[in-house]
Design brief:
- With 249 residues, the protein is mostly helical.
- It has two domains: 47 residues, Arc Repressor Mutant, subunit A, CATH 1.10.10; 139 residues, no CATH class.
- The protein contains eleven helices and no strands.
- The chain starts with 18 loop residues before the first helix and ends in an 8-residue tail after the last helix.
- The protein binds a DNA duplex (21 and 21 nucleotides) through helix 3 and helix 6.
Length: 249
DNA sequence: AAACAGCGCAACCGCAGAAGG
DNA sequence: ACCTTCTGCGGTTGCGCTGTT
């Protein structure tokens, strides 16, 4: 089916958002939520299309978004998850609290991509396998429990004390009120137990760990790792679609 | 100091799937 | 069952900033 262009109507503004527009959008969502993005800009008095409003909100205005540079651990996490998941940015973002798919995508294309290919040595493969195992174990434990970072669960909340974000990331203050998902930003990946990350990414003791899934234990020759990953379609489907969050482990 | 090139990031576009009538 | 509308996702673009010459 062919959809009409989002902003087919003349007169709708495009391009960078102004501070005033941000304020209007935040205030409106605070009061009414966003049950319908299509009509939201009309009701809020914005000369934007609903798509543009949604993008602005989800990528920059939501209160639980963490701004600023990616930590080394986050970059490693992205690289590992990308090796497993490919370009499923939303799935990767679901495992990086406070980060958006757009932001992760940008980071990947700007600098991580350059490093990733050259860094896939044997040690990286061990780390990768361990990340996968953590996902699988988490998947087992999490059945029925919604990820605290599930963006859907936050959509109906009221954000009463949102700091007015700045259009520029350079000047954005990441200090935001408690998120609607009870996600405490003080527990960001940056602050996670160092032992956890060193363990995950060093891969030194990987061989001592139990295998979480029958396919995970198979290490192909060379870098043909991905071929085994497709042996169990249901397994990967579940992993990709359930939004399990690694940091909860 | 000016011109140019490269990079980073915000935003747009189009498609696919979900949801509702 | 089919059609329409809406949302979400991934790819891509374009502009501004920064570094280099």
């Amino acid at each position: 089916m062919v959809r009409a262009p989002c902003c087919e109507k003349m007169g709708l503004k495009k391009g960078p958002w102004t501070h005033d527009e941000d304020t209007i959008l935040i205030n409106y969502i605070n009061l009414h939520g966003h049950p319908n993005w299509r009509v939201l800009p009309k009701l809020a008095g914005l000369l934007r299309c609903g798509k543009s409003c949604r993008l602005r909100w989800t990528n920059y205005l939501k209160p639980d978004i963490k701004r600023g540079n990616f930590s080394r651990e986050e970059e490693e996490m992205i690289k590992q998850l990308h090796t497993v998941m490919g370009n499923r940015w939303s799935a990767i973002a679901a495992r990086l609290p406070g980060r958006t798919d757009n932001e992760i995508k940008n980071v990947w294309h700007t600098h991580l991509k350059k490093r990733a290919n050259s860094n896939l040595n044997s040690k990286s493969l061990k780390s990768l396998k361990k990340v996968e195992q953590l996902i699988v174990e988490d998947d087992k434990e999490e059945s029925g429990r919604l990820s605290p970072f599930d963006t859907n669960s936050s959509s109906q909340e009221s954000y009463s004390e949102i700091d007015s974000p700045q259009p520029s990331s350079a000047s954005y203050n990441s200090s935001t009120p408690t998120s609607p998902n009870n996600y405490d930003e003080t527990l960001s990946i940056d602050d996670m137990d160092d032992e956890f990350w060193s363990e995950v990414f060093s891969g030194e003791d990987f061989d001592e760990l139990p295998v979480g899934h029958e396919n995970i234990g198979q290490l192909p020759s060379g870098c043909g790792y991905e071929s085994n990953l497709h042996d169990d379609v249901d397994f990967w489907f579940n992993m990709f679609t359930r939004g399990v969050d690694l940091s909860q482990i």
